[in-house]
Design goal:
The chain is an alpha/beta fold. It has a single domain (4-64, 87-137), classed as Trna Endonuclease, Chain: A, domain 1, CATH 3.40.1350.10. It contains 4 helices and 6 strands, in the order αβββαβααββ. Strands 1-2-3-4-5-6 form a 6-stranded mixed beta sheet. Helix 2 (69-88) packs across helix 3. The protein starts with a helix and ends in a 6-residue tail after the last strand.
Length: 143
Amino acid sequence: MLDENAVLKHVAKHLEGKGFAVLQILPTTQSGVDLIAEHKETKIRLLVEATGETSARIGSNRYGKPYTSTQVYDRVSKTFFATVRNQCTPGNKEHDLSAIALPATKLYRKYLEGIRPAVEKIGVHVFWVLENGNVKEGWIKEE
């Protein structure tokens, strides 16, 4: 299972392969934008909010256990809120792009699909991290 730190690590590697320099990755113990990357040529920054499918905190009740449906709903809601907040934060550049990075599980796809029109309307990019660490961009069709 992927915790938030693993999701961020895989997305950072994916972005580096697409010409981005990773400027910041925050562990789950710190607050702020989870990942900030800047494209080396265009200088466009990408602000990424992420969550995992289990807790990254050793000793927590959910460590090593998958989140329940209710917890996934909560994680998607908070990640979406943080993404929108990033777009509204004074000091962020107009050409900054926002993104969400999530594990590519059925529950995460279900809950994000439920707000797809809003995600698309405000121009949020979506990264799905597979269990093997590969990253898919955009929407994944239900199986």
